[in-house]
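JOB MANIFEST
job_type = single_chain_structure
chain_count = 1
residues = 165
[input]
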Amino acid sequence: MNIDYIRLERPSNIDEGTDIVAYNTYEEAREYLIGAMGKSDRNILLTTGSRQLEAFDGLPKDRTYIRVLPTAGVLKKCENLGYKPRHILALQGPFSVEMNVATMKEYKIGFVVTKDSGDVGGIREKVEAARMVDAKILFIRRPAVAYPRSVCTVEDAVVCALKNH
C-alpha cells in the first residue's frame, strides 16, 4: 500500500561498566546468575515482569525475588512456576530510588535483573539504587530489529513523517 513506517522507540539506557552487564537474552543472564549464586550469599531481584519468568527457571527460588504487577493472573503464574508468596513482590511502579534501595536492602539483593525499557521503565532509579547497595545490574538488551526508519522522540517522528509527504 506504499505507506511509510516510522518506529518510535525509547532511547537505550544501558551504561555498561564493572557493575553493569548487558545480555542479549534472558537465558544468558540466567546462566550468569546460576554461576554467580555459588560465589555470593546475596539474592536476586527480577524486575523484568512476568512474561519472561520461565526463562529464569533453574535459579534458586529461595534466593530469587520477583517484582511483578499485582494482578490475579500474574500472581497465579508466579505460583504455578513455583514462587512462594514471600518471594513475589506484587507492586506497580514507578519506583523511586528510595523505594528501590529499601527493597534491595530488605531482601539482601546482590543482583538486579532488568530489561532496557528506557526512562519510562525506571532504569535510572534502579541503577542508582543498585549502586547504593553495591548490587550488580544485569540488563537484557532489546532485540535488534532493522526498521527502515527509527526515531527516539515524537517530535522526530513528526518531522520524519512531514519530510516524506
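[summary]
The longest strand covers residues 109-115.
The mean pLDDT is 88.
exit_status = 0
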